[in-house]
Amino acid sequence: MKVAVVGAAGGIGQPLSLLLKLSPLVDELSLYDLFHTPGISADLNHIDTGAKVAGYLADENGFEGALSNADLVIIPAGVPRKPGMTRDDLFNLNGGIISNIAENCARYCPNANILVISNPVNSTVAIVAEVFKKHGVFNPRRLFGVTTLDLVRSNSFISQLSKDKLKSNELNVQVIGGHSGETIVPIFSHNSNKSLVEFYNSLNSEQRDTLIHRVQFGGDEVVAAKKGTGSATLSMAYSGFRLAENIIKAINGEENIIESSFINLNGDIQGSREVKNYINTKGFTEVEYISLPVKLGPRGVESIEYDILNNINSNEEELLSVALSQLSNNISKGVNFVRGA
Ligand code: NAD
Ligand code: LMR
Domain Lactate/malate dehydrogenase N-terminal, which positions (predicted)? Predict the structure, then answer.
């Protein structure tokens, strides 16, 4: 199992690389960045776990060495926000970085699972897809926008609100939509954990709104607290590792692994049609990409667990309607960036 991290020297890249080096599921870890990767890989190779680490820089053969034969490519390369910025403000800078990385992935590892962390995720995922389409190698089953941090935050925030009566490590709140502000729609009203739903139902509407708002704007909380030095890195490394580990387990044949991700709806992935029908029936804005729980398998995304859409309450439906109209613009921006429209 070869995993490549592109942007490996950054705030997310370094702790993510550490977690991957600690994982018994990883055999080879290749670290690509513009700076520091030889030092980081030398450091990580002193850890007595199995994965062999190699560092690559942006020289002639950097991408080829880092990406060739990779099973997973995790991309946290790019610029993070400062206070007062939206994720969309990162579009021009990170769009160029991501399209260049996608060109190289299409060339050196067209069959790898690509996990996109770089913001704005609602647009960068479409950029990767368009570049892959241009090269005739796009496989929607293998492209993942990383939205796991929104799920992780939802678990943490409702647990904190319950004063730890709900144990965060026992929760699995689903979050649908996209990854920025109002495109993030946490679903607290429906969950297999009945204590969670009971607790949520016991909140008054102001408390519910505050909780949902905190999940939607959780990123801003960290950006403000870091005072201009960056955005979430450690919680993101944890979240990116969680998704990567689940994809690897599914490749290794473990069954019934369900994880949420921002994925393309246009493939022949089971459940895509039902999601589109749901959106049409409700009269919501159509989208080509959405974050939903998906079942993972050796081929990547096996199916979309769309049933969640039939179980959300009317407030969550309204939030989803707002989310989809914003999402559609974010996605078009990414598509047009590559198509040159
Ligand atoms: P950072 O500045 O600490 O690290 C980014 C790294 O990318 C740097 O080491 C930089 O050298 C590298 N880089 C820049 N251009 C590159 C290129 N062309 N090729 C290879 N590497 C390149 O930033 P960070 O805090 O690690 O955040 C990275 C990105 O992740 C940001 O866009 C941020 O908004 C995003 N992010 C996303 C989520 C999410 O939930 N999806 C969460 C947190 C942060
Ligand atoms: C987050 O949700 O923490 C990330 O998307 C980073 C950001 O800019 O908020």
Answer: 1-145
State which ligand 2 atom lies nearest to the alpha carbon of 235.
Answer: 3
Strands (E), 79-190: 113-116, 143-145, 174-177, 184-187
The answer to whether the CB of 220 is under 6 A from ligand 1 is no
- List pLDDT tens digits, range 40-99: 999 999 999 999 999 999 987 999 999 999 999 999 999 999 999 999 999 999 999 999
Question: Can you tell me the distance from the alpha carbon of 237 to that of 40, in angstroms, rounded to the nearest whole number?
Answer: 16
Contact 89, 63 (CB under 8 A): no
* Residue 36 is a catalytic residue: no
pTM over 0.90: yes
Cβ of 247 below 6 Å from ligand 1: no
Ligand 1 pocket test, pick from 6, 12, 114, 261 with the greatest ligand atom count within 8 Å of Cβ, gives: 12
Spatial distance between the Cα atoms of 155 and 97, rounded to a whole number of angstroms: 32
